[in-house]
Amino acid sequence: MKLDEVTISRAILQTHAEIFSRYLELDIAIVGGGPSGLVCAALAAEEGRKVAVIEKKLSVGGGMWGGGMTFPRIVVQEEGRRLLDHFGIRSTLFQPGYYVASSVESVAKLTAAACDAGAEFFNLTSVEDVVIKGDGRVSGLVITSTPVEMTGLHVDPLTLSAKVTIDATGHDAVVAHCIKKKKGDITIHGESFMWAERAETNILDHTREIFPGVIACGMAANAVAGEARMGAVFGGMLLSGEKAAQIAQDQLNKM
Amino acid sequence: MKLDEVTISRAILQTHAEIFSRYLELDIAIVGGGPSGLVCAALAAEEGRKVAVIEKKLSVGGGMWGGGMTFPRIVVQEEGRRLLDHFGIRSTLFQPGYYVASSVESVAKLTAAACDAGAEFFNLTSVEDVVIKGDGRVSGLVITSTPVEMTGLHVDPLTLSAKVTIDATGHDAVVAHCIKKKKGDITIHGESFMWAERAETNILDHTREIFPGVIACGMAANAVAGEARMGAVFGGMLLSGEKAAQIAQDQLNKM
Amino acid sequence: MKLDEVTISRAILQTHAEIFSRYLELDIAIVGGGPSGLVCAALAAEEGRKVAVIEKKLSVGGGMWGGGMTFPRIVVQEEGRRLLDHFGIRSTLFQPGYYVASSVESVAKLTAAACDAGAEFFNLTSVEDVVIKGDGRVSGLVITSTPVEMTGLHVDPLTLSAKVTIDATGHDAVVAHCIKKKKGDITIHGESFMWAERAETNILDHTREIFPGVIACGMAANAVAGEARMGAVFGGMLLSGEKAAQIAQDQLNKM
Amino acid sequence: MKLDEVTISRAILQTHAEIFSRYLELDIAIVGGGPSGLVCAALAAEEGRKVAVIEKKLSVGGGMWGGGMTFPRIVVQEEGRRLLDHFGIRSTLFQPGYYVASSVESVAKLTAAACDAGAEFFNLTSVEDVVIKGDGRVSGLVITSTPVEMTGLHVDPLTLSAKVTIDATGHDAVVAHCIKKKKGDITIHGESFMWAERAETNILDHTREIFPGVIACGMAANAVAGEARMGAVFGGMLLSGEKAAQIAQDQLNKM
Amino acid sequence: MKLDEVTISRAILQTHAEIFSRYLELDIAIVGGGPSGLVCAALAAEEGRKVAVIEKKLSVGGGMWGGGMTFPRIVVQEEGRRLLDHFGIRSTLFQPGYYVASSVESVAKLTAAACDAGAEFFNLTSVEDVVIKGDGRVSGLVITSTPVEMTGLHVDPLTLSAKVTIDATGHDAVVAHCIKKKKGDITIHGESFMWAERAETNILDHTREIFPGVIACGMAANAVAGEARMGAVFGGMLLSGEKAAQIAQDQLNKM
Amino acid sequence: MKLDEVTISRAILQTHAEIFSRYLELDIAIVGGGPSGLVCAALAAEEGRKVAVIEKKLSVGGGMWGGGMTFPRIVVQEEGRRLLDHFGIRSTLFQPGYYVASSVESVAKLTAAACDAGAEFFNLTSVEDVVIKGDGRVSGLVITSTPVEMTGLHVDPLTLSAKVTIDATGHDAVVAHCIKKKKGDITIHGESFMWAERAETNILDHTREIFPGVIACGMAANAVAGEARMGAVFGGMLLSGEKAAQIAQDQLNKM
Amino acid sequence: MKLDEVTISRAILQTHAEIFSRYLELDIAIVGGGPSGLVCAALAAEEGRKVAVIEKKLSVGGGMWGGGMTFPRIVVQEEGRRLLDHFGIRSTLFQPGYYVASSVESVAKLTAAACDAGAEFFNLTSVEDVVIKGDGRVSGLVITSTPVEMTGLHVDPLTLSAKVTIDATGHDAVVAHCIKKKKGDITIHGESFMWAERAETNILDHTREIFPGVIACGMAANAVAGEARMGAVFGGMLLSGEKAAQIAQDQLNKM
Amino acid sequence: MKLDEVTISRAILQTHAEIFSRYLELDIAIVGGGPSGLVCAALAAEEGRKVAVIEKKLSVGGGMWGGGMTFPRIVVQEEGRRLLDHFGIRSTLFQPGYYVASSVESVAKLTAAACDAGAEFFNLTSVEDVVIKGDGRVSGLVITSTPVEMTGLHVDPLTLSAKVTIDATGHDAVVAHCIKKKKGDITIHGESFMWAERAETNILDHTREIFPGVIACGMAANAVAGEARMGAVFGGMLLSGEKAAQIAQDQLNKM
């Protein structure tokens, strides 16, 4: 082993700066690396699109890691099982219609699939605003370093452009709220009471363009639509990510 | 979709309680889900051992997620490339002998491999002490819930037993420090200055039983031995995890 | 003494998982383990109902422990003394109509009575939302681990079902606020100025169903109704708990 | 209901001031209201001694409330079951020799028993020093208000006298550490590794006078003696509280 | 020196409990021990009224201690100099009409005068609500221990009664806000921009009954009235305290 | 009232800057404005010395404000009563030899007396180091702004000179610790257990020069000497302040 | 080197007090020492005006230090290059129309120029209110010490007068918000979405008097006007500072 | 103005990555951008060396910004005035031998000079360790992002190499402590008491190589040597920076 510390540092710095610079112009910017964002990233990248996942935290996976109340298991209903199989996530039958999978395995397999398909990941990166120009369409994201944001240091952000933006940020619906905070024409109804069956049924309807250039998926879709809350069942989440990828693909095809 | 919230909750609770209870008796307890711990878990489980990774945080992956100084890339030297390939992690040549991989992909692929091999994961779980009985050997771990520990609430821990314990907790060498804090016969020299080449060369020697029943690997091995520091190069880490799995296997074969 | 640590751990884990799973379907879910919640739990369980107290903190007892301004004594007026006697709480006459009891003894005796009557306790458990389905009635609670909530970790909750829910969470009226936050049809007037006599007189009127499936009692009842504040006198609180148990019993008898 | 707020306030203030003033001179000061302290308080008060429990927190019960890792159940072995029965705590057999009880019920019943026997409770009260005069014996405690201590406000403490002091403060061994901090002649070995069987067997030997005027019981006894750690099994704790009451009684009889 | 620690503790506890209990029924409750509150307390007590100052902090004096921007000097204009002299506070002429005094001396002399006149002080005591009964008049205060409030511990308050309440709590106008928070009929306009001359001229007009039973003085008077801000000049503050004492005296004479 | 804001600001700024600049050279620097420091300041200034009290907090008075355990009363024994009378502090007899005074009045009267005698006060000022030159004697203090210190901002301190320094900083013995931290030849034994009688008797012996140029008084004297702790009795404190003033006077007379 | 600590302290104290007192009456008060404020200060002082920059932090430079996302470089477009050259800040051409400069050099050179032109700096000084008298014009600022503000200590502010005030406080538009908070007649629209080109074009229009006596420049101008956000391009900022200096000069010339 | 957000972002990212990568191999790494570090950087760069200043904070200037006790003025004695003049910093004579300058101007001019001479600045960058290889000489620094360090996120550092390292980190002597923490052969005596004259005289002697490859200057030099403390006089600091540049130059010339 012949190793030089400065070469290691340069390998990291230069490789990343090159990739980061290249990915400042995207086909699809997926904000949030939870279950629906990961599915969307994997499927959109499989179609050959230039995709990046912008994740606020150090790790992707969102609320999946902790399962339900820290018991690291997730439940997927019959309809979503097809996607578990697609990504090689093993599951066991608990009761007819209810499959249980490991939450850790689920994150790992979805992320690995997105990487294999060619999606890029920018973690520790927060979205704090959007770019909207004369056509009134979201055409980019204003991004900052999460640790800088956490410490409240006064540092300006950077900007990336995206033909389509996916808001896959869960309950918080971060992109939608960025638009609303600046008085963009959007109504965020907020999640309603829990009613798993209803929420899982309707999530696909709510997975749609919520503002020119922005598609909501996963819990963000339900939060914007005022839909019921789901709980620790993930079938609808996975299917919503799949649908978001299809809508984005359709929009890009028309450009 | 026909769904009942209580059935979802029960599916999670009962499945996890059953698995947790079963895995309170382990062949190998791997403390720390960073790169060396994940490699060790994957390879030991491939050999058919009953293995669990005890991870303090919500997500596994340790220091790999952030790459170097938040640029999410890792460097692996020639010697370690074999293991990247084994786990399907793609890499590019930066300069002869230096390969660069995505840090996000690396975590995802190592974790997926450990899952596929049958390892279990207990995340949000902290080790705060060890069990040592008449034979002077570490035969179990005292574990607690990380959120409880973070909030300082006064709650008693639980205990699991393991025939072999792996300390894969990085710089902190948590298991070694638990032993030292209670005046067990162990010397922790602490990591020395950075000297990547030396550290990467010697880590395999330091991957060894550091106390009856406890094998150190990864940065914990170097920290206990007083070895030089490595920096953001991961070949030695991966190889150290591999060796720890071999030593554990040897010990178990002799029992 | 022959003892094995793993058996101890399993005894705790399996016993609790079994009870927890069983009590995910309740007759009466009592949210808040303060004085009115404990009285309600004890009396409802004495009637044979399947009852659980969901308590946010590690310990039950609420505001009673600290008496008035940390002097650990509580005052109960003539009308409430009957319930002190029912639960075996000793009191001394301060002045005609005013009885003083130990705040510590009061908590202990009420809790012991609830246990003896068969009520279950889930402490360190926070209610963050309710389940409402097509009939518009609260039919369950979305619960999370308090330490997880305190640390802000991103972990999904679980859900339990209850035929009747009691909001016994004091000033905060937690269940009522969960409903209001999600735009349920409920008005919370908030506690008015202090006027002990009026508040103690009217609390029984305010102990009633405040939303389909939810009965408020104790200070939560007064807070929802906009009633005056009570101060450190507890007769009305105890009587309100008693009345809530009766209303719940009536509702269950009609189902 | 005829009620006057000032009378309520005076009832609390005067009753407590009178009791507090009277209990500034004690036979036995029990520091710490966890399981061993509560058993000790109940049994010593049953013998007619003037006893007070000094508890730092708002609630007594110590580490029992949370059971093991927040599952609210405790395990008691065969030897300790006699005391569960004495205090009316219900338990179920998990496996021969292992009984499981509700942690909430255990706290409530022990506390209620101590109250019934005549012990007083001073909660939200912290011990920060001891009184030692010419005879070198601990003859009193320096106490402060816990909220004052938490906020770091500069306020002088008060003092109470006790013929015998019990250190029932768990791992922290607060009284022992007060003595050590001021260079009193005491050695605190600190708890050793977990080994439940050994710890439970030896705790009764360690329940003894550790400094003139101070008896350690419960985990404080093991912590001072350097004994192994116990885990979530409580038989030894209860028996240790019983023995501390007997030693205190013997010492008082000789005075 | 023959001294017993318990006697010292009893002397403090019993003397204070006796005084505290006696002063739970007041002629005048002055909330806030800043300059106007101290002047009011001194002058009202000189008239023989039963007066207590309720001060949130450990020390009285409010904003006077720090002078202007931590330079410990205060300025008093010609009109207020009479009161400086009345209380024996030395001052020097800076420029015609502007006198400078030591901020530390000012606090000490005002406080000493209030004590000499017979006013009582309850420091570390926060007002969190008011008592209003059928006549719609504030007839008492709900008080709590400041350290308890700071730590957020769940402890009930006590109550005292007062024929007249003075809100001398500065910008915060605490009593007025307690009334407003509970929807009492009061408008708090909030302090306006700084304009010392105007504010000093008008403060006496604003020193008046702002709600039945409550007189505002000092900066609280200006804050309620929407008057301009004063800055570090104290003449109006002192005169406002004087006027509040006169109004209170008038009201009491009429009862 | 004719008032100009800038003139008010200038009056404060210029008056204080002139006094501060003048008092950068002192006869006696008294660090700490608690009871012993205030007595010392009053008596030394009465003798015509140029004296300043350096107080870390916004208000002087130290631990006296809170009395014992927040009950605002202090006890003074027979021997110290003479000084209460000297400063006009009223007291009542609790039991032969024990006098009780108001803690608020005590602070106010001592401070007023020090002001009347001509002592200056620099509050919100922290001592972080001492000046020692070739003669090995403390000849000055390194002072900083307390808010700056609290916020951890990187700002350099200023320096004042004093012929004699009094360490009246209580338990913390701040000046002594500054000397020790920099390896000055001083031993700080730390306060011993509580034993009021012994501590009150010996405090006058311990009130002495503890390092060339530094006299300790009050609790700092006992803390340095390793004397017993006193509790909430203040006679010795006042007498110690008196003695420190006498020693300082003697030293200055010899210069 | 012959040096005396007290002389050093006096040199600092007296020099600063003299300058501070003199600069309590200003021609132009510039609030905020970021890029536009520094340019404005330099150019206004070059015209001979009495100018002071009031900066909240310890250091001036605002958001320039961190460049974009902590990469310490700033971009200036063609139009602004003239000012870079004016202040001697070196830049390199990245692409036609885009110049890159060092963020550290930019701060240093702008600040040095302002100093050379005669502007004064009051750092660690926060503006918390404004002075408005009968003419309805802002004629002064209420200032406080930032560390005092950060620690929440209760200390009164001082006041300075200014013929013209510049709000150069960036997004926060601090002066504008002070006016609005006190119900002054001003509308703050808040920054809109990012659109660099538009924002850079319009900023000069928005650099204008926003309230009698107050001129907004830099991001504060855009924030008040509801203009688009700019990102890490600084040409408009510099030009805005230049224009604010011209408007101020015009206003002063007319007085 | 024709502007594109992505081009602005790329200009910043690519320019900085190129400069950062190039400056990973330095002649001289100056850790700490306070007065001595800035002088050293300016003078060494003037000699044509490849120099970078590694600054932990967002802004350079260290303790100079706040002058003495937040009065933003610094004192420089006769000997140092030459360097003030060299960097164009204006000063006024306070008393023979004592010159006063603006602290803000001093930082700006020193920084501007270092930039003009060609030094690079890496701010928000913390040094957490050193590189030492077979020759026992410090040959590089382990650096991390300050915001990451502040948030405690688990992210690996990068490494840069330097032929000579300057420890200009003030009291903290960060580089020296990195070496000591890892048991390098270095003794850090720590600053002694304040004695400005002595400290200013001796600082040049202490400005020397303190470990192979590391030169200390400024307060770090005195801290390592155990020299007296200086206070707010800066002549020695500036001269020490000058000497450090000369020593570094000598060492480089010999390589």
TrEMBL record, chains A, B, C, D, E, F, G, H:
Enzyme Commission code: 2.4.2.59
Residues annotated as binding NAD(+): 36, 55-56, 63, 127, 154-156, 219
Any single GO BP term: thiazole biosynthetic process
Pathway(s) this gene product operates in, as recorded in its UniProt entry: Cofactor biosynthesis; thiamine diphosphate biosynthesis
Positions that bind glycine: 229
Cofactors: Fe(2+)
Catalytic reaction(s) noted: hydrogen sulfide + glycine + NAD(+) = ADP-5-ethyl-4-methylthiazole-2-carboxylate + nicotinamide + 3 H2O + H(+)
Pfam families: Thi4 (PF01946)
EC top class named in words: transferase
Alphabetical list of InterPro entries matching this protein: FAD/NAD-bd_sf, Thi4_fam, Thi4_prok
Statement: the UniProt record of this protein carries the keyword Transferase: yes
Keywords for the protein's UniProt record, in alphabetical order: Iron, Metal-binding, NAD, Thiamine biosynthesis, Transferase
Source taxon at top rank: Archaea
GO molecular function: iron ion binding; pentosyltransferase activity
Ligand binding (Fe cation): 156, 171
Biological function: Involved in the biosynthesis of the thiazole moiety of thiamine. Catalyzes the conversion of NAD and glycine to adenosine diphosphate 5-(2-hydroxyethyl)-4-methylthiazole-2-carboxylate (ADT), an adenylated thiazole intermediate, using free sulfide as a source of sulfur.
Family: Belongs to the THI4 family.
Complexes and interactors: Homooctamer; tetramer of dimers.
Protein's UniProt name: Thiamine thiazole synthase
